[in-house]
Write a structure and sequence with these properties.
single chain; 232 residues; alpha/beta; Rossmann fold; six-stranded mixed sheet; 10 strands; globular; binds adenosine-5'-triphosphate; ATP binding; ATP-binding; ECF_ABC_transporter_ATP-bd
Length: 232
């Protein structure tokens, strides 16, 4: 079925730097809110990077909302938006309006439409006053919000958050969580904070490149906590 709200990994194996980092992973992801946890280096970032074509599997298939990653890789960045831990890695342009205009151009608008569309796009998020602000003058939380707006204006079907809370204070984090909770998109969230998955439908625990546990967040978190405490 084309454009089905389904992400499918079928026997996916991926090596990086000569090591297997995802080992025969098969998953069907249909829920709206899905979390990923696991120790450092367990393969979380590698897995989500397969979904927008930043990485390509050595073997197996990746299908995202009807798009086969091997057949139409160019379609993936428009289907899967990414929010990274460090907004500075994502923001390219000196002003907020230029950054948003770039996203609109990526989404297929002409350069003129993109330039003219930046302020209305910001206004949809109540941030039209930011248009001419230099990006370097935004706080970390504001930069993170700019990244989210820049991704949302492209209207992706899936949004991946890769450790978005790491550098945010608690009030900023809570505001971001409220914003994420209201998104209509399918969301995949990588986080190390154990309370980041409240209201989530499903939590995957990755361990050494394999899915160690997959289920309701409370159950998976309890097992992960016990595992971490046994190691301490
Ligand atoms: N650019 C790279 N080149 C080679 N190997 C890499 C690269 N990036 C990650 N790896 C390796 O891939 C493995 C999985 O890394 P990945 O970033 O997917 O883990 P992660 O679970 O997201 O970790 P973290 O919680 O620390 O972000 C690790 O062993 C890591 O060393």
């Amino acid at each position: 079925m084309p454009n089905a709200p389904l992400i499918r990994l079928d026997h996916v194996t991926l090596s990086r730097g000569g090591r297997v980092v995802l080992d025969d992973v098969s998953l069907e992801l249909t829920e709206r809110r899905i979390g990923l946890i696991g120790t450092n280096g367990s393969g979380k970032s590698s897995l989500v990077r397969l979904l927008n074509g930043l990485l390509t599997p050595d073997s197996g298939r990746v299908i995202v909302h009807g798009i086969d990653a091997a057949e139409a890789p160019a379609e993936l960045p428009r289907t899967v938006g990414f929010i990274f831990q460090n907004p500075d890695h994502q923001i390219i342009f000196p002003t907020v309006a230029e950054e948003i205009a770039f996203s609109l151009e990526q989404a297929g608008r002409s350069r003129r439409e993109a330039r003219e569309g930046a302020v209305p796009a910001l206004a949809r998020f109540g941030r039209e006053g930011w248009a001419e602000r230099p990006v370097h003058a935004l706080s970390e939380g504001e930069k993170q919000l700019l990244c989210i707006i820049a991704v949302l204006v492209m209207e992706p079907a899936v949004i991946v958050f890769d450790e978005p809370f790491s550098s945010l204070d608690l009030p900023t984090r809570r505001r971001l969580e409220t914003l994420i909770a209201a998104l209509p998109q399918q969301v995949l969230m990588i986080a190390h904070e154990m309370d980041a998955f409240a209201g989530y439908d499903r939590l995957l625990w990755l361990h050494e490149g394999r899915v160690r546990l997959d289920g309701p967040p409370q159950e998976v978190l309890a097992a992960y906590r016990a595992f971490a405490e046994a190691l301490a």
